[in-house]
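Appendix B. Chain record.
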Amino acid sequence: MMCEECREKSAAVFLKLAVNNKVREMHLCPACAAKKGMGFGLETGAFNISDIVGNMSGYFKDFLPAEKKTLRCGACGYKYSEFKESGRLGCPECYAGFDAQLTELMARIHGATQHTGRTYLRGSALKLSKSEIARRVEELRAALADAVVKEDFESAARLRDSLKQLEGRDGRH
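Structure tokens predicted for this chain:
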């Protein structure tokens, strides 16, 4: 079989990659494989497995569809192909710029694109234990008494409202 690049020498490197559910095969001679960053030492007859794995990342660029090779973030100019190599985005705007690609990637990795795990409540929806409510009520009452003694009525009003809200949550009035 002849090399697909130079069409002169016999192919010695055979690659089969599946990208986006499409299988692509390449047959290259050692020289053309080396030009693409896949020099495995085939020319000398000795090669190292870490060289093969290390050099593969640069070669995957050839298998990306053309629109994904040139896709860039509008804010920072980061390429989608760079994200595929590093696994990191360039800026927060990359999430919007690569939305379709990231959604596809999350669906493949996680099986879904919507978060279905545990969520944490924030703000007023926060559930407190009875002991925590009792501790906070005592703190607010002490602070309210201190504000009244100091005649700081604005703070006293805020503390009173907080106390009412907290006591109402506990069921007491």
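Further analysis of this model is presented in Appendix C.
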